[in-house]
Amino acid sequence: MDNSKDKPKKSQSSIIEYFGGLKQFLLLVVIVSGFLTFACCFSFFYFSDLGDGNNSNGAEQEQTEKKEINSSEIQPTKLPIPTSTPRPEIHISLSGQGDDATNIIDLNEGAVTFEMTHNGSSNFIVKLINKETGSTIELLVNEIGSYKGTTFAVAPSTGKYLLQFEADGNWTSNIKQSEPIATNTVPHTISGKGDSVMPVFLSEGLLIVKAKHTGSSNFIVKTYHPDGRSGTLVFNEIGQYEGSKSISIRGEKVYYFVISADGDWNITLE
Question: Which fold is adopted by the domain 87-178?
């Protein structure tokens, strides 16, 4: 009897111990599950923020790069426009009497003008000589008696030159090299007497040149480019002359009109 009464108690105690252990096990499962859930959530948000940060930096960089490429503030680099260095001006005054080979004069390459006078009664001949080679660059004047005029030559290179005078009277020569400045524009009429050099600004196109000469000797009119290159022989006449010709002008610039004459002349440019 006593043994039969103890068995149910032992069975109830086992059940209680069983459920107590199960409760502790479930509690442990809950705690572990909670910890794992927390760890997963923390990892998710941490790496999600890290990825968003990288994407944000990449987006900002991409946006910056696009802005740099497409920005209207970017302007093309303006290169300096090449400009030619102007030649130094040369002004030389010479004077003498009779035949003379002048002192050495330094000239730049290009156009040179010579204003000369002579008060003798015989030949007045002036040549431009290259000092290095001894060759004649230009026969500047070949007249008899008194003379007053302006002539023109082209120095083939920068270097040393001299003037050779053949004369029987006093003479002067003013030598000039400078950038041509023209106050004359087309249409315009220029006039003078004897040899002369006139700078004229010409536009590209066809130019009509009308001329009149009242002398008895050569009447020659040539155009020269600013760098001294010969342009066009417009007139080559002897004695009195009246007529017109057309010439083609290439490029807008100042041209030299070089006139060789012994009388009064006038030239109209249209």
Answer: Jelly Rolls (2.60.120)
Q: Please report, in tens digits, the pLDDT of each residue of the chain (270 residues total).
A: 444 444 444 455 555 555 556 666 667 766 766 666 666 666 555 555 545 544 444 444 444 444 443 444 444 434 344 444 556 789 999 999 999 999 999 999 989 999 999 999 999 999 999 999 999 999 999 999 999 999 999 999 999 999 999 999 999 999 999 877 766 677 889 899 999 999 888 888 999 999 999 999 999 999 998 777 777 899 999 999 999 999 988 878 888 999 999 999 999 999
Q: Is 48 helix (H, G, I), strand (E, B) or coil?
A: helix
Report the DSSP pairing between strands 159-166 and 241-249.
Answer: unpaired
In angstroms, the CA 203 to CA 206 distance is: 9
Please compute, for residue 235, the number of CA atoms within 13 A of its CA located in the half-sphere on the CB side: 27
Tokens of residue 136, six digits? 């004649």
CA proximity to 94, closest of 49, 67, 126: 126
Cβ burial 95-125 (10 Å sphere, 16+ → b, else e): eeeeebebeebebbebbbbbbbbbbbeeebb
- The residues near 133 (Cβ < 8 Å, ≥ 6 apart) are none
Q: Which residues contact 254 (CB under 8 A, 6 or more apart)?
A: 180, 181, 182, 199, 200, 201, 202, 226
With respect to CATH, is domain 180-270 assigned 2.60.120.380?
yes
Where are the domain boundaries for CATH 2.60.120.380 in the chain?
87-178, 180-270
Contacts of 216 (CB under 8 A, 6+ apart): 239, 240, 262, 263
Q: In the block, which residue shows the tokens 């090449």?
A: 82
Which residue is it, tokens 């002897």? 238
